[in-house]
Amino acid sequence: MSLLPVADALDRLLSAARPVQRTESVRLHDAAGRVLADDVAARLTQPPFDNSAMDGYAVRHADIAEIGSVLRVAGLSSAGHAFDGTAGPGEAVRIFTGAPLPAFADTVILQEDTELLEDGRIRTTFLTPKGRHIRPRGQDFTAGEVVLKAGQVLDAARLTVAAAMNHPELSVYARPRVAILATGDELVPPGETPGASQIIASNSFGVAAIAREAGAEVIDLGIVRDDNQAILDAVRRALQMDIDVLVTLGGASVGDFDLVQPVLGEAGMELDFWRIAMRPGKPLMVGRLGGIQVIGLPGNPVSSLVCSYLYLEPLVRKLARLPAMNRVRQAAAAVPLKQNDRRQDYIRARLVRGPDGGLLVTPFEKQDSSMMKIFAESDGLLIRPPHAPAEEPGALCDVLVLREPAA
């Protein structure tokens, strides 16, 4: 089987993805970042009454037609406490921002445009147009008006308007459920003492973080030993969990102990593709188990994370109905770049801002796919296309940004 180009692999993966249909009702405090499943209409009118946009005095415009007009202050209207008296011609009501406008008033004059006199009177010092500084009832929205649309992502502004419309809960699409299964006799969980031939299992934590940040609910299926029946049992358990994606870690290559692919085939997986023209991450496997998409990630930690950013993150975001995230930016090489071979390289690198504000990329010398310390220090991945020629410093190239460099 020939190696599949990265772009083709991603296109085939996403073309088979169907966004989740499940919905649930969540409270506003838990709704940030979720996607609305239904239109949301206002349950009331906002503002519910004419109110003042500024601190000042509510007046009849006819009483302030000239600078130097003198009015008697007949009362006060503040937020939550409307003026309930009467005010005749030549009288004003002290009013504060958000307070209900008295029925007699048609204008608000700013407090700084008046002079406070003795005996509860004011004198105007500025001409104010009629109707100024008043927020009319329903200026924002009216009862029954659809303000939010299904498919919108709930951010700070949309959550705020949902609350103002008197909705304590909203109907949203459920998060895609991603189950992660690690395989390998050599693996033990963090906190345990590994045996002479064992290592600490680390991949699942980074893969889970990428999936969660993309909008998934993650189910950790733990570590399964290199045994056909044990792997099959774990896969069958996962299939009973109403999951959308099954991610396996390790065991998808062609070694004597790489059992995941044949076991998944026994469970009914239809293999779509396997082996990608990329480095690291060539052994990536993609298939389907009924309505569940399967991604078999390489066992090396760096390979599994690179593939998660390239394939799992966009898959989860599509399933979650979230807009695609484009991490790829253009940067200038800070050092000479070597010629590349037939596989697309994703090279761990540092990113800094140049004098012009643009990105400068410097790859690390060591790129072994088992070395996580370098990945933890990397700001991005330098992308070297197949057969890319050698480049001099200053050449423009693509980078996949993992974290934004400091300004």
From TrEMBL:
Belongs to the MoeA family. Its cofactor is Mg(2+). Coiled coil: none annotated. It comes from Shinella oryzae. Catalyzes the insertion of molybdate into adenylated molybdopterin with the concomitant release of AMP. It catalyses: adenylyl-molybdopterin + molybdate = Mo-molybdopterin + AMP + H(+). Pathway: Cofactor biosynthesis; molybdopterin biosynthesis. PANTHER family: GEPHYRIN, MOLYBDOPTERIN BIOSYNTHESIS PROTEIN. Its EC number is 2.10.1.1. This is Molybdopterin molybdenumtransferase. InterPro entries: MoaB/Mog-like_dom_sf (IPR036425), MoaB/Mog_dom (IPR001453), MoCF_biosynth_CS (IPR008284), MoeA-like (IPR038987), MoeA_C_domain_IV (IPR005111), MoeA_C_domain_IV_sf (IPR036688), MoeA_linker/N (IPR005110), MoeA_linker/N_sf (IPR036135). Pfam families: MoCF_biosynth, MoeA_C, MoeA_N. Keywords: Magnesium, Metal-binding, Molybdenum, Molybdenum cofactor biosynthesis, Transferase. It comes from the Bacteria. Residues 179-318 form the MoaB/Mog domain.
